[in-house]
Amino acid sequence: MKILTTLNKYWHDKSGATAVEYALVISTLSIVVVSAIAVVGGHTGNTWNDVSNAVTD
Fold this sequence. Notes:
- By secondary structure, the protein is an all-alpha fold.
- The chain is 93% helix and 0% strand.
- The radius of gyration is 25 Å and the shape is rod-shaped.
């Protein structure tokens, strides 16, 4: 019965759920930031290539 009591205590313990939720939010935000940097970096590189080509022509 002690095992059931221990399992029941852990089943109703919600303190770990907050940490998991924060980890999910942070990982989602990290993916968004990395994706945005990749997109903006690509566009910025293309713009500088256009400027370089315009200057050398």
